[in-house]
Design a protein that fits this description.
six-stranded mixed beta sheet; 143 residues; alpha/beta; 5 helices; globular
Length: 143
């Protein structure tokens, strides 16, 4: 009996993480309602938020809105840029000091992100709260 339990336990622990239960992400990537973009892949989002993609496919310049609220930043860094918040911050400081780019606009609440994105048609940001503002829309994240 002990051997059977031990075997089952070893088998369960050896399963790849794909089989682990995951919680649906509350992170919402938002753009202006005027932006024609409907969907972006994680790879495209990564390139946008790391400043490697600077223009939308329709030609408008991308304006980044970074949510510095801790839980939003943690989830964003983990799911989109695959860095820790500190690594993300250091990446952008390096871009600034090397003359490659300016720092993205930073805001400390979802409401400030929503206002900025609504006022700048090329802006993209991320929030955790539900979207109840017709001036912005959520961009679907493709695998």
């Amino acid at each position: 009996m002990k051997n059977a339990i031990l075997t089952v336990l070893i088998l369960l622990l050896s399963l790849p993480p794909v089989y682990a239960t995951t919680v649906e992400s509350a992170l919402r990537v938002v753009v202006s309602a005027q932006n024609p973009q409907q969907q972006l892949s994680r790879s495209e989002l990564n390139r946008i938020f790391l400043g490697k993609t600077r223009k939308w496919t329709h030609g408008e310049r991308v304006a980044l809105a970074i949510n510095s609220e801790a839980s939003a930043m943690d989830e964003f860094c983990q799911t989109i840029v695959h860095k820790t918040p500190r690594q993300f911050s250091m990446y952008w400081r390096k871009q600034l000091y090397s003359g490659h780019s300016m720092l993205p606009a930073q805001f400390d609440t979802d409401e400030h992100i929503i206002d900025y994105v609504a006022e700048h048609s090329g802006a993209i940001g991320f929030i955790l709260s539900p979207i109840n503002d017709p001036r912005i829309k959520e961009v679907m994240i493709a695998p």
